[in-house]
Specification:
By secondary structure, this protein is α/β, with parallel strands linked by helices. It is built from 8 helices and 8 strands. The radius of gyration is 15 Å and the shape is globular.
Length: about 190
């Protein structure tokens, strides 16, 4: 199984001018690895990272949006898959970081750790779906996947990260949102 931080280090090489919407545990690691103005952090509304990402993708069709969703978060808002499938945003890449737990809430296991997110996304209308569970395959494929026309769904199978207290103050700084608006000209 892959480690989230290893995958994010690989992604850092490919993420340039995309908006990255990151939620919960993945957001903490992404901020540590790639702090940049085009990061949008989604907290406090579990399950809404993909909805925030869809809104940004529809509002900014000239810019690719990459969502870093958690498996527990996505389970809280499965309806978003159908909405994204209906909207068909060409600039939307939806990754789910699948570790089988509600990691940000203490690591409690999902009711069904083997849920077929790829099958759900495909039946909801995503044009391209992938399941990546090997670091070599991830490294070989992720660059091309990020260039595809969306909506694209990627189920990234990772091991659970450490359960540690998280501070959210850094992500919620008003300065962070101001910089994002400046870069987007909003």
């Amino acid at each position: 199984m892959m480690k989230r931080r290893d995958c994010l280090e690989i992604l850092k090489k490919h993420i340039k001018d995309e908006i990255v919407v990151a939620a919960y545990s993945t957001a903490h690691d992404w901020l540590d690895i790639n702090d940049r103005p085009l990061n949008y952090f989604s907290f406090g509304a579990m399950g809404l990272g993909s909805s925030h990402g869809l809104g940004l993708a529809l509002a900014r069709p000239e810019r690719k949006v990459v969502v870093f969703d958690g498996d527990g978060s996505l389970l809280m808002n499965l309806g978003t898959l159908v909405t994204i499938g209906a909207a068909q945003p060409k600039n939307f890449i939806h990754t789910v970081w699948h570790n089988g737990s509600y990691e940000a809430n203490g690591g409690h296991p999902l009711p069904n750790r083997d849920v077929d997110f790829v099958g759900l996304a495909k039946s909801a209308g995503y044009g391209k779906v992938y399941r990546l569970d090997d670091i070599r395959n991830f490294e070989q494929q992720i660059g091309a996947i990020l260039k595809e026309e969306g909506p694209v769904f990627v189920d990234v199978i990772i091991e659970q990260g450490p359960i540690v207290p998280r501070e959210y103050d850094e992500m919620y700084k008003p300065e962070r949102r101001r910089k994002l608006r400046e870069v987007l000209g909003a």
